Structures are given as structure tokens and as C-alpha cells.
Inverse folding.
């Protein structure tokens, strides 16, 4: 696997003049990747660019040890994104997570003591049959820990999963919309009290703790996707590798260049890229700038969707900012996707 990853890195870097700004090791269990192999990849990445501002590693709490923390710091990992999800042991068992709440707390404290200044804690809310008090306890416990970034996501029930199957059969309840809204407002209030800025629908940060990689993604900046199941964006097209490890390695062994590697390509039309920018932009505190959209895509939602734009302003679904941008107010962010869809470029 390591040799295949290294080969892809070399091929993707050929003829590329742009500097690498951020690196993100995510998906699967990168915290279990052998330390020596991870270091070799980091050495290769640093050889490609000396302008890297942030390197993030997703880590499971149970994988975090003093030895790994020391090695990750030495190789240049600057942010850990720790998948806590909940501190409630019953919920963790329901999620089939391998760690306990106590182990998650210990992992965060261990990472901070080791010298990590940037730590993201992940939580999930909108869980079925869970009280507001239980969610509040999870949130309060996380906010007392030495993190500078919090990602909090609403539980998504995918149809082709065990949970989705149980819901379809009526064997599993789902959270009511009112309960989700209450949990969201609790999240907003308590993070604000703790000194976190709500800078994207699901992301909160202390001063200096914003995740640069995430922000680049929301701005539509191109990125490489390296490895099995990885997704990338070249500025016009999106691509995805096969998710099977063995097939990925085999494809890299048989290829002579990246042109020979089978990837699934999604050629984005101008309308697709416009809609994506609308969607991601309106999920952030900066929002969207209609003048910039006009310059980049040749379309201004204030003109093309005049009635929907005016209606959104009147209903407080959109608010103007001093710099000419428009955003969705925090209390309306739960409906961000529906609001953004009002301005989509739909081909006739």
C-alpha cells in the first residue's frame, strides 16, 4: 500500500507549479497507518512544497498513544481530528465504537500534553431516543477539554446501512425535527459561551483554531485525492479512486502514469460548479459574494433569481454583510441546503 501511495504522489506532483498549502490524512483509520510509512509520505510531501501551513490526521481515541503522538508531532502533523462522537458509553456501543467516553477524554488530554496545539473533537447529535440533557452533558464535557476546534454533525441515516435498514423496518426510531432543532440551538449557545466562533454550519473554533483545509475545500480550491477511495478536484473535474485497497494497489502497479490509473471522473459543468459554490459558501459565516460569482461564473443570483433573493432577505434567510457578501444567519443554518437550492443554476 505504501509504495502505491508514494507512486501516486510522485505522479501527481509532476508538472504542478502550485504550492501545497494543506494536507489531510482522513478516511478509514489513518491513525493506524504504520508510523514509519507515514513519515516517509510526509517527507515526500515536504520535499514537494515548503509552504505547508497545516497537516491534519484523523485519529480514533483508542489509537492514540504517547509514542504515536511524539512521532506524529516530529513528522509535522499539526492538527489531530479525534472521532469522539459521544462520551456516553451506551451511545458508543450503539454506534459500534471501540472506545469509551473515558478513553476519549484521556486521548484528548494526552494529545494536548504531548504538545498538539490544534485539536478537533467530533460529536454527533440528533440521535434517536436521546434527551436534551444527555446531549448537553456530551457538549459540556467536550468544551471543558483542551480543544480549539469542534465539529458537530447531525446523524445521517443512509439507506444502505444496518441503521437505515432498521429504520426502514420500523425497528429503530429517528429523532424528531423539534429535538434536532433544540440540540442545535443548545450547541450554538454553549459554544459561544465557551469562546468558540461558529464559522460553518457544523464547525466551531477558538481564535486561531479554524481548520484551513476545510476552509479551502469550501472555497472551491483544487486538491489532490490520493489513495483508495480518495476524492480529488482539479478545478473543473472531480475524480474518485476505487475504494477497494487491493484493486487500488493493483491499478497503481500496472500503470505507467496517472493517465493509466482508472478513476471515476465527474466532469462538472459551469452550472455544477456555481451550485456547489452557492451550497458551500452559504454554509459558512463569510457567505457568498454575488459580484465574485458573476466574475467567476457569469451569473448573479440577485438578478437571475430576483424573486427568491428578495424573499430570502425579507424572511431573514439571508443577511447582508458590510463587505458586500451575504450569509445565512446562524439561527437559520439548519435550513441552509433548502435556502441555497433557491439560487441553483438549473439548465432548462
Amino acid at each position: 500500500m505504501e509504495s502505491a501511495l508514494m507512486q501516486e504522489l510522485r505522479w501527481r506532483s509532476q508538472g504542478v507549479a502550485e504550492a501545497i498549502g494543506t494536507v489531510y490524512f482522513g478516511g478509514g483509520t489513518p491513525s493506524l497507518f504504520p508510523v514509519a510509512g507515514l513519515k516517509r509520505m510526509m517527507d515526500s510531501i515536504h520535499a514537494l512544497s515548503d509552504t505547508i501551513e497545516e497537516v491534519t490526521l484523523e485519529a480514533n481515541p483508542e489509537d492514540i498513544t504517547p509514542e504515536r503522538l511524539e512521532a506524529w508531532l516530529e513528522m509535522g502533523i499539526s492538527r489531530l481530528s479525534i472521532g469522539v462522537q459521544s462520551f456516553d458509553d451506551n451511545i458508543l456501543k450503539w454506534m459500534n465504537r471501540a472506545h469509551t467516553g473515558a478513553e476519549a477524554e484521556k486521548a484528548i488530554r494526552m494529545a494536548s500534553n504531548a504538545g498538539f496545539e490544534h485539536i478537533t473533537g467530533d460529536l454527533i447529535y440528533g440521535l434517536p431516543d436521546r434527551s436534551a440533557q444527555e446531549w448537553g452533558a456530551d457538549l459540556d464535557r467536550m468544551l471543558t477539554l483542551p480543544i480549539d476546534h469542534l465539529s458537530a454533525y447531525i446523524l445521517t441515516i443512509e439507506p444502505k446501512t444496518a441503521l437505515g435498514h432498521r429504520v426502514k423496518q420500523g425497528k429503530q426510531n429517528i429523532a424528531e425535527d423539534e429535538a434536532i432543532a433544540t440540540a442545535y440551538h443548545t450547541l450554538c449557545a454553549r459554544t459561544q459561551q465557551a469562546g468558540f466562533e461558529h464559522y460553518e454550519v457544523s464547525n466551531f473554533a477558538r481564535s486561531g483554531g479554524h481548520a484551513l483545509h476545510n476552509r479551502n475545500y469550501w472555497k472551491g480550491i483544487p486538491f489532490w485525492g490520493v489513495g483508495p477511495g480518495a476524492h480529488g478536484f482539479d478545478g473543473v473535474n472531480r475524480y474518485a479512486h476505487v475504494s477497494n485497497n487491493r484493486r487500488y494497489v493493483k491499478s497503481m502497479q500496472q500503470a505507467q502514469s496517472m493517465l493509466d490509473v482508472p478513476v471515476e471522473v465527474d466532469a462538472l459543468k459551469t452550472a455544477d460548479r456555481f451550485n456547489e459554490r452557492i451550497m458551500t459558501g452559504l454554509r459558512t459565516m463569510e457567505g457568498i459574494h454575488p459580484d465574485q460569482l458573476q466574475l467567476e461564473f457569469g451569473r448573479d443570483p440577485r438578478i437571475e433569481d430576483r424573486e427568491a433573493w428578495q424573499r430570502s432577505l425579507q424572511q431573514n434567510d439571508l443577511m447582508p454583510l458590510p463587505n458586500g457578501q451575504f450569509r445565512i444567519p446562524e439561527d437559520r443554518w439548519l435550513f441552509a441546503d433548502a435556502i441555497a437550492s433557491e439560487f441553483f443554476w438549473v439548465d432548462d
Q: What stands out?
A: The chain has a mean pLDDT of 91.
